[in-house]
């Protein structure tokens, strides 16, 4: 297999083939897969590997990192004090622009069979 991600390899080609068959036209709805995990745990790598395995022409990746609040829109609770220094904590839920993220997932689902 050309897919190098260990999780995808563990699923096996039969699973990938069955999933692709289920999502062939005339598929009336999209299949939305949410992938969660700690920062830098491999969510983006897994999404890219899944998209390759399931046919990138039918998959669209919507990454939560693309909806991080920046500039004047940064959440107040994103500041944490460590010793005498104030640091930005990008991991708070309020750091995500949830309405924009939801809109992007909805938009992707209207044009793609699979949204990761």
Question: How would you portray this structure in words?
Answer:
The chain is α/β, with parallel strands linked by helices and 116 residues long. The protein is built from 3 helices and 5 strands; from the N terminus they run αβαβββαβ. The protein has a 3-stranded parallel sheet with strand order 1-5-2, covered by helices on one side. Helix 1 crosses helix 2 (43-54). The protein is flat.
Describe the structure using short key phrases.
3 helices, alpha/beta, 5 strands, 3-stranded parallel beta sheet, 116 residues, 12% strand, two-stranded antiparallel ribbon
Topology:
Blueprint: H1 6-22, E1 31-32, H2 43-54, E2 59-60, E3 79-82, E4 85-88, H3 98-111, E5 114-115
Parallel strand pairs: 1-5, 2-5
Antiparallel strand pairs: 3-4
How much helix is in the residues? Answer: 25-40%
In terms of DSSP E residues, the strand content is 5-15%
Work out the radius of gyration. 18 Å
| Separation of the first and last Cα atoms | 21 Å
Q: What is the tally of helical segments?
A: 3
Summarize, please.
Helices cover 37% and strands 12% of the residues. The protein contains three helices and five strands.
